[in-house]
Design a protein that fits this description.
Layout lengths: L2 E6 L3 H11 L4 E7 L2 H11 L3 E4 L8 H11 L5 E5 L4 H9 L4 E4 L4 H12 L6
């Protein structure tokens, strides 16, 4: 049985890249959301095992969305995926409940490693 991933990113390019990288793995994208609001509205019905979350998006940003997801669903495993690789951003992500951080651009090995760590309960990054 494949592990269910939710991808939250306003870029269809990132979604397409992740789709290719997860092909032939034990991970599947169960839901792709282009906004934080869509992710919150979809989370309960999708019940993903891990959420990858961009930070810069229209409407709710990824940090706000992560905070809301973790508040509503304390077991939510969110990995931030962003090019905003600053110490204060990483610290803020951890403070709002993110389980880790992947820096853009990322490669297949980085993505798969991060998702497997998150699935096993380890901190990523």
């Amino acid at each position: 049985m494949k592990h269910r991933i939710m991808v939250v990113d306003d870029s269809r390019v990132v979604y397409a890249e992740m789709s290719k990288m997860l092909a032939n793995s034990d991970l599947e994208i169960a839901k792709y959301c282009r906004s934080g609001e869509e992710a919150i509205a979809s989370y309960e019905s999708v019940q993903p095992e891990v959420v990858t979350m961009d930070i810069v998006m229209p409407g709710m940003d990824g940090l706000e969305t992560c905070s809301e997801l973790v508040m509503r669903w304390p077991d939510a495993r969110v990995i931030m995926v962003s090019s905003l690789a600053y110490n204060d951003t990483i610290s803020t992500a951890a403070a709002v409940g993110a389980k880790g951080f992947i820096f853009k651009p990322f490669d297949k090995e980085m993505l798969l490693d991060a998702l497997q760590k998150a699935l096993s309960g380890e901190t990523v990054g």
